[in-house]
Write a structure and sequence with these properties.
The protein is of the alpha+beta class. The protein is about 25% helix and about 20% strand. It contains 9 helices and 12 strands. The chain has helices at about 5-20, 35-40, 45-55, 100-105, 110-115, 250, 255-265, 275-280, 290-295, and strands at about 135-140, 140-145, 160-165, 170-175, 180-190, 190-195, 205-210, 215, 220-225, 230-240, 245, 285-290. A hairpin with a 6-residue loop joins strand 6 and strand 7. The chain is globular, with a radius of gyration of 33 Å. The termini are far apart. Mean pLDDT is about 75; it is low at about 15-85.
Length: about 300
Amino acid sequence: MYTSTSLVVFLSPLLALAAPQFGGPFDSGSSGEVPSSAASAPTSGLTSTTTAIATLTGTGSVTPSSTSAYTTTSPSNGVAKASNSPAPPADVSVANDLDLIGQLVLAAKAPDRIDLIPNDASFKFDFDNPPDKSMTTGKGGHTVRADRQSFPPLIGTGVSMVIGFLGPCGFNTPHTHPRSSEINVVVQGTLETEFTLENGARTVHNTLGTHQMTVFPQGALHTEFNPNCDDAIFVAGFASEDPGVQSTAQTYFGLSQDVIEAATGNDFTFEGKDVDKFRNLIPANVALGVDSCLRKCQIK
């Protein structure tokens, strides 16, 4: 049976040759305590060798010398670890990178698009920490959009997604998507939904609970409303990387004053000076409504 001293002497020639391969994962600046069993071992000329032996046998670490390149501190379980923490990951988001978006659009084949985005983490989208230009915010909540601009890995897939976070009485105001139908599933709370496909079609109304879904056909005027005093969250999927959105009321009052007056002249007439008043009253999406909900939830 070898003693620790005889083991050092026996293995010294072999480890002296092999020592460089132990240098990679360890830090030369580490410090450690000398176990009592190692304190009695001869150390002259054997600093790096005894350190390597201590590492291999799990006996602990050895007091470093000024020239040792292999000193390490062994934790209680005898497994050596590097003392330097890994550097934090770099920002790998490719959102809003117009040069990359152009290359992805022009790529000859799907594998070429994969190669244009070399970092795997760039294929991950965080709806809780979204990139610039992907969020729409109003008094009633916000929506986050993952489309070909905010999430370029979608290019070539034909899909995109929105998550809506509606506060109490939050109202995703009437709007359309000109380039895609929408499937909308509630993952928290309750939503009141409505859509009208086109002139002459009836309006379809539904109350959706958690894990219930509805569909809004492409181009249909539709809306989502949280009728309760708790938050609601929905997930909307689209069959387009760029479904587009047109908020109806906000867009309508963005038309020229003459057009608005002419469009409303037969049934409702108001002076031109009132157009700006109405325009300024249109809330940003996502808005607060309906009056009965606001009263119930005591929201002013």
